[in-house]
Design a protein that fits this description.
single chain, mainly beta, 11 strands, 0% helix
Length: 122
């Protein structure tokens, strides 16, 4: 199976910034869509952002203007740049990939990392 791993989570103050990284074993992102999801305690997993194989991006409405997703297929790496973070951004952030075009549904994704905790607090 493809191995996916997130990193970069931690504690950040409201209004601050943080960059999350997602890497995969081998050259597994070359033709895949990659997405970030997040899940807070007591809430369902929700879509954050996605990037397809051609570089096109999509963001959940609450993330627009604050978060940026990018990828480098040669490095099998996807980043999520988080800016102007809010306390409600606190969650476990997951990186996921699928073989075709992106969707916003978690059940559509084939490969998942184990998550990285992001805590926004003063």
């Amino acid at each position: 199976q493809v191995q996916v791993m997130e990193s970069g989570g931690g504690l950040v103050q409201p209004g601050g910034s943080l960059r999350l990284s997602c890497t995969a074993s081998g050259r597994t992102f070359s033709t895949n869509a990659v997405a970030w999801f997040r899940q807070a305690p007591g809430k369902e997993r929700e879509f954050v952002a996605a990037i397809n194989w051609s570089g096109g991006t999509y963001y959940a409405d609450s993330m627009k203007g604050r978060f940026t997703i990018s990828r480098d297929n040669a490095k099998n790496t996807v980043w999520l740049q988080m800016s102007n973070v809010k306390p409600e951004d606190t969650a476990v952030y997951y990186c996921a990939a699928r073989r075709t075009y992106y969707t916003t549904r978690p059940l559509d994704y084939d490969y998942w990392g184990q998550g990285t905790q992001v805590t926004v607090s003063s």
